[in-house]
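Hi Prof. W.,

I finally got the AraC family transcriptional regulator prediction working! I wasn't sure whether to trim anything, so I left the full sequence exactly as given:
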Amino acid sequence: MDMLWKINIERPVAYFKSGQFVSNHGWKHKEMKLTKDFEIIIGVHKSIFIQIEDKQFELQHGDVLLIPPGLQYFGYHPSENEASFFWLHFFPRSETDRYPTDKFINHLIGSLIDHHRESINNASFLPDFFSLKYTNKPFILMNQILDIANNSYYSTYAVDYLVTEMLIELTEQFSKRFLQSYTDQYENTHKFNQILEWIRVNIYEDIHVKDVADTFSMNADHLTRVFKKNIGMSTIKYINTIKLNKAKELLCTTNKTIKEISYQLNFKEDKYFMKLFKNYEGMTPSQFRDAYTNTYINTLSVDPDIPVPDHLNFE
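And this is what came out:
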């Protein structure tokens, strides 16, 4: 599984058609070829046998198959009576890309860092085939999609947003299942998520690379190689980045002085904190506070002089 489908979700994808199919004994999927739409098939009961070009897939309960446009697919083996599956067609609103799986996993691991999160935040990432760990949410979403699609809502976006939510849910489940198996391929990375969590929990302490390495019975140089291999940065840079992310949050949400924030995050001295902040962020803590505090506050309140649009007024 070297490549994933990257589907942009900055705007909701466009719903096309959907349904739940229950087979008769001996049924086989007819031969089809999509033009511009994608199809998602989710196994519900018994087995469905579908071949895409020269690849064969047996879909059972909770299996997910993503079929892209331009490929021939058909049933290669008859199903038993009452074999069933959900099917859903949609159109992406922008061009889809193929995305390296290992690159996606690296972004997931480093998702506490802004540039990693931004790289994957606006898209759904799905393989051709995977299995759900939990089917309750996807099955509920499919039933909601079927209900809304057949009830003539005044806005077609109602079902478009639900289909987009489905893509996000499928990506979430795929990423969590695959991340665990993928990280096992790296030496010592069965500990890596624990290391990241340990750093997060101890972010207010004076953390050194040796402290992390000793806690997890690793050599400090080897630990840094593991960090660079997994998220493309050294251990100390990761620690500093997480500390500075917390500092930015404190600058925006509290009235604490820069010296107090520096002390709270256990920097050696406030001058070192200010120098590090400027090196990483391109501005001083004071400049950051001046530039971003009002923006942050505006996301939490509404100017009383500006009328609230009707669709946002919940009184």
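Residues 295-315 have pLDDT under 50 and may be disordered. Does that look reasonable to you?

Thanks,
D.
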